[in-house]
Design brief:
Layout: H1 18-35, E1 39-42, E2 51-56, H2 62-71, E3 77-80, H3 82-89, E4 108-111, H4 119-126, E5 140-141, H5 147-156, E6 162-168, H6 173-178, E7 182-185, H7 186-198, E8 201-207, E9 216-222, E10 230-236, H8 238-243, E11 249-254, H9 257-261, H10 269-283, E12 285-291, H11 294-297, H12 300-311, H13 316-322, H14 333-341, E13 346-350, H15 354-362, E14 366-371, H16 382-390
Parallel strand pairs: 1-7, 11-12, 11-13, 13-14
Antiparallel strand pairs: 1-2, 2-6, 3-4, 3-6, 4-5, 8-9, 9-10, 10-12
Helix pairs in contact: 1-7, 5-7, 7-14, 12-13
């Protein structure tokens, strides 16, 4: 018989990487919420607590609600940020002592009568732009364990932080698995922002001459979950300046589709972006970190909702809170990780925002000084710039 010419490939050792696996699970879970699919958050092993099955109020449909009802042992609740719950109930919400972290408010839970457990009704309760609120039938109830992780997951998915939730004991886990419902550890959700930030690696680089800085490069960074890339725009040779002991000019700029790309007059983002690049060219070197944190971390869709609320009389801060978000949801560990990867641990920061100074310093970056970055009002964004100064504490010079 003729001998086979096939070669035997060496076996590949399949060893689970816990960090990458956790990031992947959270990324998938956030995508499921965006599709309207429920997700099961699980407590720490041995805690004795029930799991929490959640679905995004703005995307869940009849099938998702039916799946939740088939697994529930207690009535469903609606999880909201206190600022959003106050709008739904038409009354102030007392301070809640809960599992809040990093200064974020603990979630509030509202009982959900059957009349409100309908997709359209839930969307109205979640979204103040589209709301057609019924009489206040819901009432405050204790928030179930893992509620904070649930709201964090919704925010990671750039969804409105409003979720339908039911508790599921261990006996219901096989049924949830048979329905194809994804389960993940709540602690992995809470750890995700920091874990994703510290896993950033350089994945691509190219020379890209810019209109205001012809000697420039763009370096792309990607986290281990494979999510949206963050970019570093290097003007001149800031890496060489840093290696020689200097402090390059640096700016942390959150992406703004409307301002950066379309030239929106509602903000000053586009002029800030182009002005920073021109300033770095004049300075001889600099780095601009272009971060995927649209709308102070709430995402483009929610930023458009916030604009609608601003047209109805709210300022930037109050519009974000009406959606259930904090005034500023951004983190600076991403920026610090990128700077360290570029060898720039000491910088002069081009900013008017003292929170950026404190945020980078807290992440181990030596901020050698602040360089003002003032952009004149244009007649449309005057109130916006005034709000940044009076309510966000931005420095005027």
């Amino acid at each position: 018989m003729p001998q086979s010419t096939a070669t035997t490939e060496p076996a590949i050792a399949l060893v689970a990487d816990p960090l990458s696996l956790a990031l992947r699970q959270v990324h998938r879970a956030a995508s499921d919420l965006r599709r309207g699919t429920p997700v099961l958050l699980q407590p720490a092993p041995g805690s004795g607590a029930a799991g929490l099955l959640v679905a995004a109020a703005e995307t869940v449909g009849a099938r998702g609600l039916a799946e939740m009802a088939s697994l529930a042992t207690l009535p469903a609740t609606l999880l909201l940020a206190p600022s959003r719950a106050a709008a739904v109930l038409h009354r102030p919400i007392p301070s809640v002592v809960g599992e809040s972290r990093n200064g974020q408010e603990a979630p509030v839970a509202l009982a959900l009568p059957a009349a409100l457990l309908q997709p359209e009704q839930l969307r109205g309760l979640a979204d103040p732009v589209a709301e057609q609120l019924m009489p206040a039938l819901a009432e405050l109830v204790p928030a179930p364990p893992l509620s904070f992780a649930a709201l964090v997951l919704a925010k990671l998915g750039r969804l409105l932080p409003a979720l339908v939730a039911v508790q599921v004991p261990d006996a219901g886990l096989p049924r949830a698995a048979s329905l194809g419902i994804m389960a993940l550890a709540a602690e992995d959700v809470l750890a995700y922002p920091a874990t994703a930030a510290t896993s950033l690696t350089r994945v691509a680089e190219a020379r890209v001459p810019l209109q205001d800085a012809t000697d420039s490069r763009i370096i792309a960074f990607r986290a281990a979950d494979g999510g949206i890339e963050h970019l570093a725009i290097l003007v001149g040779d800031p890496e060489g300046l840093a290696a020689a002991g200097g402090a390059p000019l640096a700016r942390v700029h959150s992406e703004c589709f409307t301002g950066d790309l379309l030239g929106s007059l509602r903000c000053d983002c586009g002029p800030q972006l182009r002005g920073a690049i021109a300033r770095m060219a004049a300075d001889g070197a600099g780095v601009l970190l272009y971060l995927a944190q649209e709308g102070r971390g709430i995402g483009l869709v929610n930023k458009l909702r916030a604009y609608t609320l601003q047209d109805q009389g709210l300022d930037t801060l109050d519009a974000n809170r009406a959606l259930g978000y904090g005034a500023d949801e951004r983190g600076f560990l991403v920026a610090a990780t990128m700077l360290r990867a570029l060898g720039m641990t000491r910088v002069r920061l081009l900013t008017n925002n003292p929170d950026k100074l404190a945020g980078l310093a807290a992440c181990g970056i030596d901020v050698a000084g602040r360089e003002p970055h003032q952009i004149a009002a244009n007649g449309v964004n005057d109130a916006y710039l005034d709000t940044k100064a009076t309510r966000f504490g931005h420095l005027l010079r």
